[in-house]
Amino acid sequence: MEYILETKELTKRFGKEEAVSKLDMKIKKGEIYGFLGPNGAGKTTTIRILLGLMKPTSGSIRIFQENLDTERISILKRVGSLVENPSYYPHLTAYENLEASRKILEVPKARIQEVLNIVGLSDVTNKKVKGFSLGMKQRLGIANSLMNNPELLILDEPTNGLDPSGIIEIRNLINRLANEAGITILISSHLLSEVDQLATTVGIINKGKLIFQDSIDVMRRYAQQSISIKVNDSEKARNMLFSNGIKTNYENGRILLPELADMEIAEAIRILVESGVSIYRVEEEKRSLEEIFLQMTREEEDD
Amino acid sequence: MIKNLLCADFLKIKRKGFWFLTFLGPFGVVALQMVNYGVRKDYLLQQSNDEWGYYILNVSTFTPLALVLGVVILTSFMTSVENETNAWKQLIAFPVTKISVYLSKLTVLALLLFISSFLLMLFTLGFGMILELQGQIPYGKLLKHSFYPYFAVTPVLALQLWIAIVSKNQGVPIAVGVLGVILTYSAYLLPDWMIWKWPSLINEWDEPLINVLLGVGVGSLLYIIGMFDFVRRDVK
Description:
The structure holds 2 protein chains of 2 kinds.
Chain A: E1 3-14, E2 17-23, E3 26-28, E4 32-36, H1 43-50, E5 58-63, E6 66-67, H2 72-76, E7 79-82, H3 94-105, H4 110-119, H5 134-146, E8 152-156, H6 164-181, E9 184-189, H7 192-196, E10 201-206, E11 209-215, H8 216-221, E12 225-231, H9 234-243, E13 249-251, E14 254-257, H10 262-274, E15 279-286, H11 289-302
Parallel strand pairs in A: 4-9, 4-10, 7-8, 8-9
Antiparallel strand pairs in A: 1-2, 1-3, 1-5, 5-6, 10-11, 12-14, 12-15, 13-14
Helix pairs in contact in A: 3-4, 4-5
Chain B: H1 2-12, H2 18-46, H3 51-60, H4 63-83, H5 88-92, H6 98-130, H7 139-152, H8 154-166, H9 171-185, H10 208-232
Pfam families (chain B): ABC2_membrane_4
Protein name (chain B): Permease
Transmembrane segments (chain B): 18-35, 55-81, 102-127, 147-165, 172-190, 210-231
């Protein structure tokens, strides 16, 4: 399999502290790669290294099958990026901000209007960025990252600090870019819910280490289901089930059945009904991805 | 690449007062002589038979001070444009080398200061003519006093740019700058090796050209050191 971006044992040390530790990140063409981790896990550091803003202490990075260390310029010509808070020149208009980038990137002037249309800022083209809302600045940042028609887009926390409607806007925009323009996207976030509906692949980083990297479907499989039952006499119900070979857990006045096949659940309920226990509720409890994410990062800490 | 960066840098300094300062510096220096000659023209004309020479000397008393002040303010402005929203990370994530980014910043500053020096020459000449000074206009001296300080100030420019670009706290370059201005003000008392003395064109051998050559030489050296330090560092 050919990867658009591949790091091998990427490590970055600040003094004694290891911010990124032996990271093996793999991104396939056309993917939306959700790069997740709590604040301070090393996401931004990793992204800065990927863009050549920081030099890794050790390890290698290949982007478009080329070595970042030696081919930085030719690689960056095909990469668009937005790192952390948007950078802009407040005293310049939206157009002038993009014009400054255009001059460096040597793309045609028409591209400015194109990217402004894509991010929906065409009606504020000639307004100074000073007066923009955070959402608009963020969109200008994305417009800037699209100037050179990138094949790989690296977005570091693009929805940070935005209100819910702003987050949805950015999410739709990213979806459109991936589906319509076929851009491979690396998007980092500390909130799983943000990339949940976007990402095709997820990488989870905690304390500088990549603790999970696979498709989002594999991650969803971690979302074990369980059936919770509420009855009038929990003690009796549990004993009845146990004597029939069904192990249960007890939590907050509810009996929890671990993941069982439909037939086994039917069986358990039949036993309860026949034994005369009143069943108030039978519910399916699904762990959200958010909980899995939290659990994963917590497990890592317990080790 | 460097041409593109220069175009972008000139765009970025729009509406920031760079051009106004470029004009204000030389105008201020000559304006001081407007006051001086306005108040006591007769007295001043009596001081020397060489009216033009004496006038140019008077103008150039304040040139080093204005120049060093200009260097400090412009370099600080220049880096504040990128520092304000930490645009360095965006700039350097573009397909450009850090060497060219640094060179571009220096070139813009050097060009602005060159324009200032050129304006200084024009203003000096212009006001001299208005004063109707006697004798031939000493063009050679005029050129020397307008452009020699410009070359002699190169080390200060290279030093200030280096400090301003790598400092996280902009108080540092300002503090060094203020100290530099004070040192320039007391150039007469300084030993010859201090770079802040050089724009005054004074030295032991009474040969201004030494300051020019030393300035360009040491300036280039400081520029190269600063550039490599910038390349070596991680971007904030």
